[in-house]
Specification:
By secondary structure, this protein is an alpha/beta fold. The chain is 33% helix and 20% strand. The chain contains eight helices and eight strands, in the order βββαβαβαβαααβαβα. The protein has an eight-stranded mixed beta sheet, with helices on both faces. α2 packs across α3. It is globular, with a radius of gyration of 17 Å. The two termini are 19 Å apart. The mean pLDDT is 95.
């Protein structure tokens, strides 16, 4: 189909300019809804050039779909161990979500039917944005893609399937509940906001969401959040597909030469095909 055209733009946001990147297919599919894709990075790192952003967007755009990525506001890094210490920042919630919603509004001004998606922290922002759209008077997204997502204020207890996959050495290097809590509190900025379902949607009201694809890494403790969220979506009556990509760890979409990236993006594109 040829290489997509790539264009960088800036949008006027609530706190300044919001950089976005557009991926315009060489041969566009006229009926495929565009994808707004958000990178991960624990709310503290990443950007438009991050492979989890750029490589995924290229892969999707090669199928004829328009893709937008967003360089949303980032927060100072946090201490994973030792006494908790958080640096002052104006970029905590709702700043990253506001930037995402600015990009959503821009894309929906041209296309009323879009798909939201993201990985890890970006998946949390995508889910929050979808809930904001649900609660607005405007059009809802056509679908929601959440890859190895952090969706709960606290990492849920590992469900049996996740626990079985993380036995022995496979548990080494995975996230602990303490690290996830520090990461999420660093984003929320307060204990009160940490429990707000507008910040972390897990455990909140999920009715009215569009169809959801949950992509998980096989050896990732964050699967506890996706697996729990899948159950919550089912209880809310939301059409949900939950796939565990074999032999992968957290962040496999950041490794475009890996089998996990190939398998994960193939599943993602296949799911998108079902929406059109």
């Amino acid at each position: 189909m040829g290489d997509p055209q790539i264009r960088n733009r800036y949008l006027p946001g609530a706190r300044g300019r919001v950089p976005i990147r557009e991926y315009l297919p060489a041969t566009p599919d006229p009926v495929a809804p565009p994808l707004l894709w958000l990178h991960g990075g624990a709310f503290v790192s990443g950007g438009l050039d991050q492979l989890e952003s750029h490589a995924v967007a290229l892969r999707v755009a090669e199928t004829g779909r328009r893709v937008h990525t967003v360089d949303y506001a980032l927060i100072p890094r946090f201490r994973a161990w030792g006494p908790p210490k958080y640096q002052p920042s104006d970029n905590r919630y709702p700043a990253p979500l506001d930037d995402v919603l600015t990009a959503v509004s821009d894309l929906m001004s041209e296309e009323s039917r879009i798909v939201l998606g993201g990985a890890s922290a970006g998946a949390c922002l995508a889910a929050s944005a979808a809930l904001r759209l649900r609660d607005s008077s405007g059009p809802a997204p056509a679908g929601l893609i959440l890859a190895y997502a952090t969706l709960h204020a606290e990492l849920p207890r590992l469900p049996h399937p996740v626990r079985d996959r993380l036995r022995g050495r496979r548990r080494i290097g995975t996230f602990t509940p303490q690290v996830i809590r520090r990461m999420n509190l660093n984003y929320a900025g307060s204990e009160e906001l940490l429990r707000d379902p507008d910040v972390f949607p897990g455990g909140g009201k999920l009715t009215g969401l569009p169809p959801v694809l949950l992509l998980d890494a096989a050896y990732d403790s964050l699967s506890a959040s996706s697996t729990t969220f899948a159950g919550e979506l089912a209880e809310a009556g939301i059409e949900t597909e939950h796939l565990v990509v074999p032999d992968t760890r957290h962040g496999f979409l950041n490794r475009p030469r890996s089998a996990g990236f190939r398998d994960g993006t193939t599943a993602l594109v296949r799911w998108l095909d079902q929406l059109t």
